[in-house]
Amino acid sequence: MPTTTTVQRVAIVTGAARGIGAATAVRLAADGFAVAVLDLDEAACASTVATIEKEGGRALAVDCDVSDAAQVEAAVARVDTELGAPTVLVNNAGIVRDNLVFKMTDRDFDSVIGVHLRGAFLMARAVQRHQTAAGWGRTVNLSSSAALGNRGQANYSSAKAGLQGLTKTLAIELGPFGVTVNCVAPGFIATEMTAATAQRMGITFEEFTDRYAQSIPVRRGGRPEDIAQAVSFFVREEAGFVNGQILYVAGGPKG
């Protein structure tokens, strides 16, 4: 009897060298996807790729500045050639340039908007060609509870709020082609980025984490794996009727 070959679906995760992106890439590989691990520095992606390959998965490290349209196009083309046509996209790449508005420079604002919001747009535009051609796709954008407003983060909050609007618009435009677009908005998550914030504040990361935990109903900070779990739900086949949604993963009600 003839055998049926199932083609492995390919996912791209941006900002996947560490933190939430790395945890998400590893989780999607465990879910059966081949995963392109994108970050500014290809060498920095080696640990994530090695973790995936150690468990028998397929992964590819790709360097890409997601705010640069030419680099995005080149990265997606490389993924298509070396792993296969990408039909899952997780827009996680991000930076912080925190400051109060009267101290925030033009560059502080533009660079954060460029990576988070422009980057997600450029990646979504490039990947949707493969999604619509396949008649199936999943895009998940990483927003934040900071989208609701956060002192010292006019740039970051604006970018994350913009991602929620982008999510809903892409869900409307791409839904008819079998592509869903959803958004995960983390609360406080223990990552190298939040550790750097603690350092800027002049306190230990343990103090920083404990301070936040007291205001969270479940009384703990989040872990990158908590966010990876939520992304895993949105990209699975069974989530095909969930589209244009914002899920706050914050240990308590938000939004």
Structural commentary:
- The chain is α/β, with parallel strands linked by helices and 255 residues long.
- It folds into two domains: 10-187 and 223-249, NAD(P)-binding Rossmann-like Domain (Rossmann fold); 188-221, no CATH class.
- It is 45% helix and 16% strand.
- It contains eight helices and seven strands, in the order E-H-E-H-E-H-E-H-E-H-E-H-H-H-E.
- The protein has helices spanning 19-30, 46-54, 69-82, 106-134, 154-174, 192-201, 205-213, 224-235, and strands at residues 10-14, 34-39, 59-63, 86-91, 137-142, 179-186, 246-249.
- Strands 3-2-1-4-5-6-7 form a seven-stranded parallel beta sheet, with helices on both faces.
- Helix 4 links the parallel strand 4 (86-91) and strand 5.
- Helix 1 (19-30) crosses helix 8, helix 3 packs parallel to helix 4 (106-134) and helix 4 (106-134) packs parallel to helix 5 (154-174).
- It is globular, with a radius of gyration of 18 Å.
- The model has no long low-confidence stretch (mean pLDDT 94).
Biggest β-sheet strands, sense, barrel: 7 strands, parallel
User: How many structural units, i.e. domains?
Assistant: 2
Regarding CATH, which class of the largest domain?
A: Alpha Beta
| Proportion of residues in extended strands | 15-25%
Unreliable runs, pLDDT <50, ≥5 residues?
Answer: none
Strand order of the largest sheet: 3-2-1-4-5-6-7
The total of helices stands at 8
Query: Overall pLDDT, averaged?
Result: 94
Q: Which CATH architecture of the largest domain would you pick?
A: 3-Layer(aba) Sandwich
Rg is 18 Å
Report the helical percentage. 40-55%
